[in-house]
Design goal:
The complex is a heterodimer of chains A (135) and B (383). Chain A has one domain (6-133): Phosphohistidine domain (Glucose Oxidase, domain 1). Chain A is 18% helix and 27% strand. Chain A has helices spanning 31-34, 70-79, 94-103; strands spanning 6-9, 11-14, 17-24, 58-61, 86-89, 107-109, 121-125, 130-133. Chain A has an eight-stranded mixed β-sheet with strand order 1-8-7-3-4-5-6-2. In chain A, helix 2 (70-79) runs parallel beside helix 3 (94-103). Chain B has 383 residues and is an alpha/beta fold. In chain B, strands 12-11-10-13-14 form a five-stranded parallel β-sheet, sandwiched between helices. The longest helix of chain B is centred in the first third of the chain and has 17 residues, at 17-33. Classes of the chains: A alpha/beta (135), B alpha/beta (383). Chains A and B meet through strand 2, helix 2 and helix 3 of A and helix 2, helix 3 and helix 7 of B.
Chain lengths: 135, 383
Amino acid sequence: MPQVAEILRGRGLSRGVAKGELLLATDALSFLGGVDPETGVIVERGHDAEGRSVADRVLAFPRGKGSTVGSYVLYQLERNGVAPAAVINEESEAIVAVGAVMAGIPLVDGVALSDLVDGSSVRVDGSSGTVEVLG
Amino acid sequence: MHLTREEESVLDGEQGPGAAKCMEILAALGDVYGADRLIPVESVQVAGVSYRTVGEAGLEFLEDLAASGASATVPSRLNPAGMDLERWREMGVPAGFAERQLRVVEAYRSIGVEPACTCTPYYLEEPGLGDHLAWSESSAVSHSNSVLGARTNREGGPSALAAAVVGRTPNYGLHLDENRVPDVRVETGYEPEGTAGYGALGVAAGEALGNRVPVLDLGSPSRDELKSLGAAMASTGSVALYHVEGVTPEVGSMEYEVEETIRVEEPELEVGDDVDLVALGCPHLSGEELRRAAEGLEEVSTPIWLFVSAAVRGLNPEAAEMLEGAGARVFTDTCMVVSPLDEMGYRRVLVDSGKAYTYLPGLTGVEARFASTERCLEVAAGG
């Protein structure tokens, strides 16, 4: 078992626990049009994580944007087996919060992205609102 | 957000996995918006009905939720679908689209949401002053808040559906007195004429207002004119509540001071008779609007479609028959903004609605032209 290096406390918005490799994006993200629901690849032109797949990653980004239909896209990603394992936001808005609940993806917000490192291993607990950085 | 013991038990699955999911959606939204608790709602209007809007992702979610046994606990109705649910072949809707659209509506029906697909549910059952609602469609939200004095935020499709199942909504935003007070005054440099004139004013006002709560100085507009104004302000801006001095029900008893006064001039919308379709009924026509159109149209040379709720059509069979007899089509359950007009081969559409004028190019890929209701009827008649 890796050692817990740090525990970050935020707010749990969608329940459940998941662990994975962190994909850290610094641009806001629209799931509708921004993420391919078949592959999980971020396709928004010019997005700082363009071309990377969210599948099975702990996806950290500042906040959602764009169409409210984005909530359904999170659900579709889950159905297609290419959803993120968990989501971390600085401040969630309704699109991502509702979509994460619909899809059963753990979601914690209120975490500073500057405390996270791309590629690190993290465990997200959406019930208690904590993020454990495992190293 | 605080949940009662009973609400906690729903969250823990005591009423099944579908109800638990719906409660979790409301709890998450309550936290996001800083609500203190859930409050009961009188009725729900659910957006996310047109297959063009929700797509395969929405269809999957709805069919799964229906299979989970979730069921509406308060009167709930749907927003317009992407086609007339019975006469879609006549509209020229592709069969593949129709098959998926019917599955979306069937999924809602099995969750207990009445498939009365309309943006004017207030013609079916009028909310009262102070009633709390969870409605979705922007013009329905605007009209019920502003003209009827009911209280609703603009819900997304999933949050409205969750409110239908749980029967409650998070207490924030326009449910609270302090957020209903006007913060900006709108003066017009002219007198708008008819529903089209009020819609055009709404296009210009919405652009200037964003999401503020305006108080407008107008004469004594009719309810149909207010419906047109509100719909347009909610399309170019995100105005979900407005007041009109001496007309709408809440502003007379409010104490307020506005920070700013803005002056809105008549906008120049693109006109022109060279169109391949005339479309009226955005928002869906009232009975009076339908009857007046029937009196004003004797024959049709350019195709004209009128959109109403099935309920209003049912209450006005003679007007609908007169219009159909003259060669017009009176469609229900849908409108020009959510149906796949481009896939049906249309290129340029004449409307009398500020909202439709705003949305048609982006949502359906056709060009929009604007005229008064009377002029729209003349163009349809070949004048």
